[in-house]
What does this fold into?
Amino acid sequence: MATFTRVNASSGVLKEIKVDLDSALDLRELRTVLKALGDVERLRIVQLLAGYQEISVSHLTQALRISQPLASWHLRILRKAGIISRRKEGRQAYCSLNRCKLAQCQEALAGLVGRPGAGMARQDNM
Amino acid sequence: MATFTRVNASSGVLKEIKVDLDSALDLRELRTVLKALGDVERLRIVQLLAGYQEISVSHLTQALRISQPLASWHLRILRKAGIISRRKEGRQAYCSLNRCKLAQCQEALAGLVGRPGAGMARQDNM
DNA sequence: ATAATATATAAATGCTTCTTTATAGATTCT
DNA sequence: AGAATCTATAAAGAAGCATTTATATATTAT
It folds into this structure.
């Protein structure tokens, strides 16, 4: 298992943590990804993106029949969550799916409920 | 594969679609489930519930150190999304995880991006 | 340089979500 | 019956989200 150490900033306590890079989604990041996916328009974007290597914003806008600023809005949320990437070429922006991020999300979800210790720390205090 | 036919209301076109019942989450329902999971408190609830057959609301409230009304609020959202079930006994309410729903969610997510046709209809109009 | 195109951002607006405090409903205990 | 307990709901407020219209920025074409 590939690991690295990092500082736990959220707790205020400086503590080293072993993190599994292959499914390194803590609760907060998992929340962010799931929240980003929890919208029909954004799911349609992901669905569309899944069928292509990459696609320009204008094509996406046409394909999904949504306004261009709305597409930009949703793309921004997906990008901030790490679900998609953007490549700029000339005046176009090409979007592509970060499939590994989605895989991580599924992993984390499975780890949350399934195998203890896989992708997510378990608390056993009751 | 268990299937049934239904009308595609979103497109306005009346069209019969084969649906896989084992991962029968359409975009809207997937959205609802993901949205319900897209919150740290609710993920903590799911995480806790995953470790037990069932757990009472008051135990859950203590374990997660959140107020009782807040627990009720989040539990309601999880229940409406089909992620948890509730069994009432006396004055207590016992919550349990619907693991199959989470599995469906993972399936749908995988189907959305991965195998075409698995769990989710694909659009190929570009 | 001007015009056209592609994308992003801003402002405004209505809607939903999260959280707390307070209260109601139902069940058990004395 | 009355008191205590468990859970749900209501009201209220702050914060955040989705959407539209209008505008800015950057790039290409004429």
Notes: The helical segments of chain A are 27-37, 40-50, 57-64, 68-80, 99-113.
